[in-house]
Amino acid sequence: MNSRHLTLIAIALLALIWSFLAPFTITLLNYIGLYSMVAVGLVLLTGVGGMTSFGQAAFVGLGAYATAWICTSPVAQAALASLPPGLVPWLGLLLGLAVTALIAWALGAVTLRLSGHYLPLGTIAWGLSLYYIFGNLEMLGGFTGITGVPPLTLFGMDLSSPRALGILIWVVLLLSIWTLHNLLDSREGRAIRSLKTGRVMAESMGVDTARQRIKLFVLAALLAAVSGWMYAHLQRFVNPTPFNINIGIEYLFMAVVGGSGYLWGAVLGATLITLLKEQLQDLLPKLLGASGNFEVIVFGLLMLLVLQRAAEGLWPLFAAGTRKFLKPIPPRANSAAPAELATRALPDAGSVVLQADEVTKRFSGLIANNAVNLTVKSGEVHALIGPNGAGKSTFFNMISGVDDPTSGSVKLMGQDMKTKPSRAFAALGLGRTFQHVRLLGQRSVLENVALGAHLRGHRGWMSAMLRLDRREEAALLAEARRQIERCGLLEYIDTPAASLPLGQQRIVEIARALAGQPAILLLDEPAAGLRHLEKQSLAALLTQLRAEGLAILVVEHDMEFVMNLADRITVLEFGTVIASGSPAQVQADPRVMAAYLGGDLPEGAA
Ligand SMILES: Nc1ncnc2c1ncn2[C@@H]1O[C@H](COP(=O)(O)OP(=O)(O)OP(=O)(O)O)[C@@H](O)[C@H]1O
To answer: Which Gene3D superfamilies match (predicted)?
Structure first.
């Protein structure tokens, strides 16, 4: 038995005993289900996507108020008089989802541009604003709220009792977890996970990070709105109190304490915080002899403790505990026949793939690149060398769309790339690695490499959620596997990338770049951290890629590696090209010897 079986057994047991549970237990379980919906959205947003929000309670409010308003307002009732009354709450759900999507999109468009601490501060600001809007709008009943919200009916079934509505709450929650799990286990899921490592890597893989962030934000808000909709029909009245910023913070507690990177962590967190709140609200006033929301202080302390002792939350500990007596979960089988992936015809041998003309980059007074000219042709290895601070990384950024030159131009496959983002470079066939390795450390080598093939698939979120992307996914994973094998990493295919030595992580980055089927490969210090034999196999791999017609640009400090491999070398010093030519010409150039090598011959050079 594995933990997936255990989950199914737990769900079946809950379903069996549901009719026999005490009303109080049903109430608790209903609230746990409702809170879990919101916390699951936060896991996606914060734990997976790296965006913290304190304002989710406001979206719960939007879902609750939309349905409460449409079900009770005389204006809406007059307009909908011809409809069967049981249908109106479902229109309330549609209205809630539409309003939430619109507001979340607008708020996201403004807030998600903020970085660092400003993003959570921004969410507090709009969380407070929405709360006061609920309280001050007369049509929403002000701070008194709206009473007389009708119960839900579904295909004629009456869901007025908490026991009946609870079934809907848990079915919706479990379906949400299933679809989100599917989403994370897909091409789009890998793109979502890549957001946390920062925009540069994700964009270089072809991921439109701004779009992914806003979609994630709207999805988390919609989950909160669905929770609010069910909450309104459970309580039968709404007022602003449950949607204030304190509750927004409690939702964040749930996600973080449970384990903000794990969907089931949200359920664990929601369960713990709900049960704890229940106990503390009774206990603390008795202990302290005064009434108040003292439980918030305990939650704060609990969160500090959890963050200190188990930064990933309690779910990984819980899962590790169950693993002792359960078998590991086998990877989800995908027996679909692989779809055809988009393929790229490589440019003719010897044709110019990348052309940098007079590229200059100024940082205030400092000229990091000074009118640099460089071309890379298909079927050649071009090395860019120079002492520390010569401007190599800056130039790399200029030719990969991370930054724009102050003047000069960069052409990729003959196209002017001025102001184009990195993902446009990736779309034209530029694959790259990073000086400081950027991998999804906790994910397997296979998933990391598959991210490199992002642009070769096209299935979106909906397909992934409903598992309609299986053929494409099989093809992407097969392609990733091929590249892993080609780079000699097959034995580590299921290993989390972070547990590999740094040198091998660099090779994983190369495999990831190759999965995108590039026409040009930019490698930033690929040999750093590799042992002698590993360097030799890297050189063999690059030689083979060159023979296949790839254009390769390498920035490298290891002179032996460069001199033995490169067809042409460009030498930078203080941002200026001081020499360019074959390894022999460069080694013989007195300026190179003087400036770069202190007058000595290059290490490893003949
Ligand atoms: N964002 C920035 N703002 C200001 N100065 C910068 C910035 N980025 C780089 N520089 C400066 O530009 C110069 C070139 O730096 P760059 O990192 O490109 O050199 P490098 O050749 O890659 O060095 P290394 O081999 O150590 O990586 C350095 O003087 C550096 O301090």
So the answer is: P-loop containing nucleotide triphosphate hydrolases
How many angstroms separate the most distant Cα atoms in the chain?
92
For the chain, the domains span: 3-323, 345-429+518-606, 445-515
Pocket test for ligand 1, best of 366, 397, 433 (most atoms within 8 A of CB): 366
**Cβ(150)–Cβ(88) under 8 Å?**
yes
Per residue in 372-419, pLDDT tens? 999 999 999 999 998 888 899 999 999 999 999 999 999 999 999 988
Quote the pTM value. Answer: 0.89
**Using CA atoms in the order 85, 69, 237, 233, what is the torsion angle rounded to 10 degrees?**
50
Number of C-beta neighbours around residue 570 at 10 A: 25
Pocket test for ligand 1, best of 200, 362, 363, 574 (most atoms within 8 A of CB): 363
Q: What is the DSSP letter of 47?
A: I
pLDDT in tens, 265-288: 999 999 999 998 888 888 888 888
Domains 3-323 and 345-429+518-606 fall in the same CATH topology:
no
CB 395 within 8 A of CB 372: yes
Domain 3-323 matching CATH 1.10.3470: the answer reads yes
d(CA 113, CA 122): 10
CB 29 within 8 A of CB 170: yes
Distances (CA, A) of 237 to 250, 303, 431: 21, 31, 56
Q: Which residues, 6 or more positions from 216, have their beta carbon under 8 angstroms from its beta carbon?
A: 44, 45, 48, 49, 51, 192, 195
Residue 552 pairs in a beta bridge with 381, 521
CA distances from 242 to 61, 143, 162, 200, 219 (A): 8, 11, 18, 39, 21
Distance between Cα 468 and ligand 1 center (Å): 46
Q: Show the tokens assigned to 593.
A: 């010897």
Identify whether the C-beta of residue 26 lies closer than 8 Å to the C-beta of residue 166: yes
CATH of domain 345-429+518-606: 3.40.50.300
